[in-house]
Amino acid sequence: MAKALLGYMSSTDPRALAQLMAENRRLRRQVADLEAYVLRLQAENDSLAAAAAEAQLLSLDESMQPA
Q1: How confident is the model at residue 33 (pLDDT cuts 50, 70, 90)?
Q2: Which of 39, 41, 6 minimizes the C-alpha distance to 24?
Q3: Residue 2 near residue 20, CB atoms below 8 Å
Q4: For the CA atoms of 25, 4, 10, 8, what is the dihedral angle to 10 degrees?
Q5: Three-state secondary structure call for residue 18
Q6: Where are the alpha helices (DSSP H) in 1-67?
Q7: Whole-angstrom Cα distance, residue 25 to residue 12?
Q8: How far apart are CA 10 and CA 6, in angstroms?
């Protein structure tokens, strides 16, 4: 994307280039942080789903209780 932006701007100004590179690094870092956050949430969701399934297996519903 940075190459596309550079081609679009067609500027050789070193300040503009440095600004675009810094923005690109910031966005890549933000994407990596968000991907890590998604992985943490998925792991937490998996553990909660497993705990809920285990709790459901351990409890008997009303129809299965002895009379």
Answers
A1: very high
A2: 6
A3: yes
A4: -120
A5: helix
A6: 2-9, 14-58
A7: 19
A8: 6
